[in-house]
């Protein structure tokens, strides 16, 4: 959430940033914010004046009574009662303005950094880097959903029977490959200094608001109505909320956490897109990186996270590219985001496997996540996160890009985790 200070210090910059994200009616919304803030401040100022007058007048009543000036004392009492009654209305006015202001601020996305390119959508993202091994497949190469059936790795129909579309059942070496990837990603994160967390996969609404999934992504989250709880779309939500309403010591930063969880996304509105096989699921496994940092160090943290994800893709021997997302494609909460995509040789398309984002103080302001400097000053933290990695499309690319006439080859880095070097 943007702070009032950020908005008032450079209103034009905020409006330009929101327009870069194609946020509708940016000028009008910011004007509403400023109007509500002025209304809240005006009511607060008058309340302060009223309180001062009540205190001053109340002090005179005793003295007036003592001096026998009963009529003047009664008049002073009446004035105190009148001010208190007026203050009740003012308090209601101030509370309503503050509530409306908070609600409006929740609907405003983060302002992107200057380094975020202009653009309307995915077609305008900038390719920063390409790497990995080129793949040459036989002419009769199969897509992963056919490979999964051929080698009895994943049963999509059984998932439909048990739950519905988008909830596959992994079997045999398919299940072992999932577990191998999870352990590989967690071990790599631990070696890079991340502390492993095993959080709940269900969160309350406060947690959803804290990281910005609510109210923006409410329609994409599975909601347990009876208990007013949400299935998490990513481990970012519970792990980052560990630091909600917390004041950290500067010496604790940067905090580096990683977590494996199942993730749940309704993917509402995705119909008509390429949703075959593992390309778009409602439940999937993911290892997430979360960092809490000082503002002056968050750029370095972001680069370290990018390097970490790139290192994973190199070890998996997959062709990849890194995209700098444009204003029209960057997420609601991010100030800067890079996507990692792997190339599926069988599908002849790029598959997104990770987003690595810097949220600046946007989430921290919602979370009230702060740190205390050496000078005992309290400042907002920066929050960052990134997938390292999401499994479905990694599995799709691994199956497709490593198919041979003898079977599916397992990358060298995964063999110790799988316990086999070939799926046949």
Automatic annotation (TrEMBL):
<dbReference type="InterPro" id="IPR015866">
    <property type="entry name" value="Ser-tRNA-synth_1_N"/>
</dbReference>
<keyword id="KW-0547">Nucleotide-binding</keyword>
<dbReference type="GO" id="GO:0004828">
    <property type="term" value="F:serine-tRNA ligase activity"/>
</dbReference>
<dbReference type="InterPro" id="IPR045864">
    <property type="entry name" value="aa-tRNA-synth_II/BPL/LPL"/>
</dbReference>
<dbReference type="Pfam" id="PF02403">
    <property type="entry name" value="Seryl_tRNA_N"/>
</dbReference>
<dbReference type="InterPro" id="IPR006195">
    <property type="entry name" value="aa-tRNA-synth_II"/>
</dbReference>
<feature type="coiled-coil region">
    <location>
        <begin position="26"/>
        <end position="100"/>
    </location>
</feature>
<keyword id="KW-0067">ATP-binding</keyword>
<keyword id="KW-0030">Aminoacyl-tRNA synthetase</keyword>
<dbReference type="Pfam" id="PF00587">
    <property type="entry name" value="tRNA-synt_2b"/>
</dbReference>
<dbReference type="InterPro" id="IPR042103">
    <property type="entry name" value="SerRS_1_N_sf"/>
</dbReference>
<comment type="similarity">
    <text>Belongs to the class-II aminoacyl-tRNA synthetase family. Type-1 seryl-tRNA synthetase subfamily.</text>
</comment>
<keyword id="KW-0648">Protein biosynthesis</keyword>
<dbReference type="InterPro" id="IPR002314">
    <property type="entry name" value="aa-tRNA-synt_IIb"/>
</dbReference>
<protein>
    <recommendedName>
        <fullName>Serine--tRNA ligase</fullName>
        <ecNumber>6.1.1.11</ecNumber>
    </recommendedName>
</protein>
<dbReference type="InterPro" id="IPR002317">
    <property type="entry name" value="Ser-tRNA-ligase_type_1"/>
</dbReference>
<dbReference type="InterPro" id="IPR010978">
    <property type="entry name" value="tRNA-bd_arm"/>
</dbReference>
<feature type="domain" description="Aminoacyl-transfer RNA synthetases class-II family profile">
    <location>
        <begin position="176"/>
        <end position="416"/>
    </location>
</feature>
<keyword id="KW-0175">Coiled coil</keyword>
<keyword id="KW-0436">Ligase</keyword>
<comment type="pathway">
    <text>Aminoacyl-tRNA biosynthesis; selenocysteinyl-tRNA(Sec) biosynthesis; L-seryl-tRNA(Sec) from L-serine and tRNA(Sec): step 1/1.</text>
</comment>
<keyword id="KW-0963">Cytoplasm</keyword>
């Amino acid at each position: 959430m943007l702070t009032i200070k950020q908005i008032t210090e450079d209103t034009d910059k905020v409006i330009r940033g929101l327009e870069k994200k194609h946020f509708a009616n940016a000028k009008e919304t910011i004007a509403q914010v400023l109007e509500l803030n002025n209304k809240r401040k005006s009511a607060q100022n008058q309340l302060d004046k009223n309180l001062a007058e009540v205190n001053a007048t109340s002090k005179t009543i005793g003295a007036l009574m003592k001096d026998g000036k009963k009529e003047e004392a009664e008049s002073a009492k009446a004035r105190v009662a009148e001010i208190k009654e007026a203050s009740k209305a003012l308090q209601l006015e101030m509370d309503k303005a503050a509530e409306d202001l908070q609600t409006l601020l929740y609907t405003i996305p983060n302002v992107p950094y200057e380094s975020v390119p202009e653009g309307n959508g995915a077609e305008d993202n900038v390719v920063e880097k390409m790497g990995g091994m080129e793949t040459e497949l036989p002419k009769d190469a199969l897509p992963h959903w056919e490979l999964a059936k051929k080698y009895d790795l994943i049963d999509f129909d059984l998932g439909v029977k048990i739950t519905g579309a988008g909830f596959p059942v992994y079997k045999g070496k398919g299940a072992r490959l999932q577990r191998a990837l999870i352990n590989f990603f967690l071990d790599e994160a631990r070696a890079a200094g991340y502390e492993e967390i095993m959080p709940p996969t269900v969160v309350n609404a406060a947690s959803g608001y804290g990281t910005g999934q609510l109210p923006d992504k409410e329609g994409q989250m599975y909601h347990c109505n009876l208990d007013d709880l949400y299935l998490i779309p990513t481990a970012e939500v519970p792990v980052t909320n560990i630091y909600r309403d917390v004041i950290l010591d500067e010496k604790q930063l940067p905090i580096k956490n990683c977590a494996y969880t199942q993730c749940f996304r309704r993917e509402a509105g995705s119909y008509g897109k390429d949703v075959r096989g593992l390309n778009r699921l409602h439940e999937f496994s993911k290892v997430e990186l979360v960092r809490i940092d000082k503002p002056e160090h968050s750029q370095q943290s972001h680069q370290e996270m990018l390097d970490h994800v790139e290192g994973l893709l190199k070890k998996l021997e997959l062709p990849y590219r890194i995209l700098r997302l444009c204003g029209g494609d960057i997420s609601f909460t991010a100030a800067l985001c890079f996507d990692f995509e792997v190339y599926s040789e069988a599908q002849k398309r790029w598959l997104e496997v990770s987003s690595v984002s810097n949220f600046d103080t946007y989430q921290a302001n919602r979370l009230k996540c702060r740190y205390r400097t050496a000078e005992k000053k309290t400042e907002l933290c920066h929050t960052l996160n990134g997938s390292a990695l999401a499994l479905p499309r990694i599995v799709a690319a691994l199956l497709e890009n490593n198919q041979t006439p003898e079977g599916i080859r397992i990358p060298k880095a995964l063999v110790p985790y799988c316990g086999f070097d070939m799926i046949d």
